[in-house]
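Dear colleague,

Following up on Tuesday's group meeting, I ran the structure prediction for the two-component complex that the binding team flagged. I've pasted the input sequences exactly as they went in, so you can double-check that nothing got truncated or mislabelled along the way. The structure tokens for the whole assembly follow below. Feel free to forward this to whoever is handling the docking comparison.

Inputs:
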Amino acid sequence: MQSLTTLWEHLSESPLLYLTLTLIAYQIGLYLYQKSGKKPLVNPVLIAIILLVILLLVTGTPYERYFEGASFLHFLLGPATVALAIPLYRQFEKVRKSALAISISLLTGSAVSAVSSVLIAWALGGSEQSFLSLAPKSVTTPVSMGITEALGGVPSLTAVLVIITGILGASLGPTVLNIVRVKSWAARGLAIGTAAHGLGTARKLQVNEEAGAFSGLAMGLNALATAILLPLVWYWIF
Amino acid sequence: MLFYLTVILLCQLIGEALVTLFDFPVPGPVIGMAIMFFGLLIKGSVPDGLSSVGDTLLSHMSLLFIPAGVGIMVNAELIQREIVPITVSLVISTFLCIAVTGLLMSWLTRNKSIGGHKE
């Protein structure tokens, strides 16, 4: 019989192992989330990430090797983004009626997110590297990584900050909106999509289709706005 | 099913191609979303097959963020070193963005009767 180490070595050569482990970790996350009575902080994605990091550290597996194996899931983010056109189309009438309100709210929210994150990190003594990586944190991963790279930040750090932001916005964002008494699905969706991109949108789609459509729209528009405006503002200031 | 999966991938592919050709600062899938949206506008309805493929992809979209999120292990050192500025900045600016966007949007659309709900 082969030793466990050789078995692991053998299995980890194909994507099967890491795909399966990622799905298992996510299922455990979902299970704990349901068990907790859907407490926002018992976030399935967060739990899955923690479990996988522990597993990789314990087995001494480099991240690159894991990512290569699980990259099929990462790839599906592309088609999922394209599919956001469907809820957007279904809610198009409502979106069209408030086009101006959407544009103003989105641009303001996007600026607030980027400017406040840089200012706070700078005031608390963060390095340039970290606040450059924080600035595009509300924008969906592929775009934000591109923006950070262009500005001279750390793309892989941005990816992580973007996902933490997404988890935070998706889980506690609704509570923030309850506190400031924002009630309409359109406004709630737009706010979550602007701040918490795809992770926020995924959550909104489960709650209400109208909120999901506004969220998906905000995510796409914020990617566009930040990608164009952030580098311009940055070079203008420095 | 397979036909509509092909359509979705094709939209993404065209999006990627346009981004590369014209040096757009936006990712291919976002352009792909726009293409699919205009396609739906022209068609005038969402075909059943497309709905089911789309809903499958979207219903577990958060799963798809896990591989990139595990990348936290590569950046643990930098995050640990600047844990206070990074955490405070991230939490406050995210909540601020949500509150400002939501309040502005609901104020600007206050005259339109859009149903209100709490979660």
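Chain A has a mean pLDDT of 88.

Cheers,
M.
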